[in-house]
Amino acid sequence: MDLQDRTSSPFHPISIGAFYPGIERGLSADLIATRALRGQAFPVCTSLVVAGSGVVTDVLDVPTDSVDAQLDHLLETREPTAAKVSIVNHPATVDVVFRHLASRLDGPVLLDLTLSGPSGEDVVSQRGIEALTEHLEQADLVTLRVRDASLIAGMEIPSLDDAQVAIQRIGQLGADRVLLRCGRLPTHFFDTDSAPPDYAVDLYYDGDDFALYEAPYVQAETIHGASSAYLMYILRTVAAGAPLPDALQSAKAYVTEALRYGLEDESIAAPNYFWKWVQETSMS
Questions:
Q1: Exposed end of the chain (fewer CB within 10 Å): N or C?
Q2: Are 55 and 118 in contact (CB under 8 A)?
Q3: pLDDT for 149 beyond 90
Q4: In sequence order, what are the beta bridge partners of 203?
Q5: What is the pLDDT of residues 3-47, one digit of tens each?
Q6: 3-state helix, strand, coil in the chain (%, to 5)
Q7: How big is the CA angle at 277 (ends 274 and 278), to the nearest 5 degrees?
Q8: 55 C-beta neighbours (distance < 10 Å), count
Q9: CB-based burial of residue 219 (10 Å sphere; 0-12 exposed, 13-18 middle, 19+ buried)?
């Protein structure tokens, strides 16, 4: 069975994370991405994040009892095939989320450790970070941006050399498989004064070996939700039985092409073209 056959399987993930009113980020982006990939997501809201113009201005946690009730209802009335976990702040809520997933979900779990806002603002407290770290081993894949990996690993990450050290530290905390979304990091520390490379890199670590996934860098500030499309594509492919390295490679190429297509129109409609490409290619 090839990747195209695998991704035709039903895809019904639980998306656990934050709702951003008025912005296609977090749960909203996950719902759009899953629908574009011909699936249906079941959202569980853990926080309300108020953000605009690239800055988070307020974060309101949903009470733990409410998150517990949302998960209990979904797992009683639906048959999810996977789960993506992102922003969860309160330690008790973190424990509730992973207790439900461990005991009642038959499918892969992707933990997207989102700890900070677009401009570096905290969206998860130190106690929340510590609680999430205690559950790293329950995720089939842990994904992070460089800024959030720095918080977990306790070090700066100015180059891919440093990224390898950081990702190993995260693995030592309990994560079996880690994907660090490095963007345009230079290869070596002594390259940091040079112009950024013209490609974007993701670094994968399985506890033994490293793998790099490269694609041409696409400047796409006007398009929100690309990370949701990327991670949901990975989760869908793995849930359908594909090996994780194959899923990572195909997802990288897939979202890069979607971004290119979306930017063919330089108007405000560019995000619509991005999602149009995702939907059309998932149906082919």
A1: C
A2: yes
A3: yes
A4: 180, 212
A5: 444 446 899 999 999 999 878 889 999 998 898 888 999 999 999
A6: 45, 20, 35
A7: 90
A8: 12
A9: exposed
User: For 3-282, which CATH superfamily applies?
Assistant: Ribokinase (3.40.1190.20)
List alpha helices for the chain, DSSP H. 3-6, 26-36, 64-77, 91-104, 126-133, 146-153, 160-172, 226-239, 244-262, 270-282
Dist. CA 278–CA 272, nearest whole Å: 10
Contact of 182 with 202, CB cutoff 8 Å:
yes
Question: 241: how many CB neighbours lie within 10 A of its CB?
Answer: 13
Better pLDDT: 170 or 218: 170
CA dist., res. 152 & res. 167, Å (int): 9
* Of the listed ranges 71-75, 122-126, 254-258, the one predicted with least confidence: 254-258
Helix (H, G, I), strand (E, B) or coil at 256: helix
Helix (H/G/I), strand (E/B), else coil: 159 = coil
Three-class SS of residue 110?
strand
* Cβ-contact 278, 33 below 8 angstroms: yes
Amino acid in the structure at residue 256: T
- How many residues appear in the chain? 284
**What DSSP designation does 216 have?**
E
Tokens (6 digits) for 70:
């949302």
Cα 122 from chain centre = 17
- Give pLDDT, residue 222: 58
Tokens for 130? 């510590």
Cα separation, 261 vs 256, whole angstroms: 9
Query: Rounded CA gap, 192 and 158, in Å?
Result: 7
Enter the pTM of the model: 0.89
Cα 26–chain centre separation: 9
